[in-house]
């Protein structure tokens, strides 16, 4: 069986990309000033699906300007090390991690597919030392910094799974957001990890009669 997990808000209690970018920005007065100046423009862009990639790329570029690929990977690795050492604001969601471990214990294939940069997600998932495949947003270098290339969100998550050889259907899908509706519709057992009647109504309205809400 194949179990597909979102990352931020599902396995993690927080936005890994935002926290990594903030960690980089706060260490540089110049990056901090540039970020503060652009926030009134970038934040509304990130909030809208059509402009989310562009808005995120602006913030990503400011935080990574001057980094070559090796330095970029090292930055993600250090962030992952700090996270696993218990530092910073990011934390595992106990219910998410327990569910992931249960799938692995049963011998299911587990994939994390996320809108976060793939290299960042790998730095967070890799130290678990478990057979977990990670798919995420690819980055490209532009103008001395890094921006989003293929933004792994919404329908693109399903495309990433297909391109990785996993077809168009999977047994389980876990996410905290209906932005992942295509991912949920591809699952035999879709789960939105927000409990309560409101979450159940959202699943019903989305046409996921076989879906369930789990309070993580």
From TrEMBL:
Transmembrane segments: none annotated. InterPro entries: HAD-like_sf, HAD_sf. Gene3D superfamilies: HAD superfamily/HAD-like, SG protein - dephosphorylation function. This is Haloacid dehalogenase-like hydrolase. The lineage of its organism: Bacteria, Pseudomonadati, Pseudomonadota, Alphaproteobacteria, Caulobacterales.
């Amino acid at each position: 069986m194949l179990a597909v997990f979102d990352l931020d808000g599902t396995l993690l209690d927080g936005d890994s990309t935002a926290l990594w970018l903030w960690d980089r920005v706060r260490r540089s007065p110049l990056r901090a000033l540039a970020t503060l100046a652009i926030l009134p423009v970038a934040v509304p862009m990130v909030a809208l699906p059509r402009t989310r990639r562009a808005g995120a790329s602006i913030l990503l570029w400011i935080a990574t300007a001057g980094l070559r690929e090796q330095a970029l990977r090292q930055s993600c690795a250090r962030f992952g090390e700090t996270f696993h050492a218990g530092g910073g604001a990011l934390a595992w969601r106990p219910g998410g991690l327990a569910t992931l471990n249960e799938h692995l214990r049963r011998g299911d294939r587990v994939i994390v597919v996320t809108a976060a940069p793939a290299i960042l997600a790998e730095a967070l998932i890799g130290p678990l030392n478990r057979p977990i495949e990670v798919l995420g947003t690819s980055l490209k270098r532009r103008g001395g910094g890094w921006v989003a290339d293929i933004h792994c969100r919404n329908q693109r998550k399903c495309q990433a799974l297909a391109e990785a050889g996993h077809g168009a259907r999977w047994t389980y899908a876990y996410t905290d957001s209906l932005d992942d509706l295509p991912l949920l519709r591809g699952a035999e057992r879709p789960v939105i990890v927000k409990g309560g009647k409101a979450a159940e109504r959202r699943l019903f309205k989305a046409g996921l009669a076989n879906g369930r809400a789990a309070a993580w």
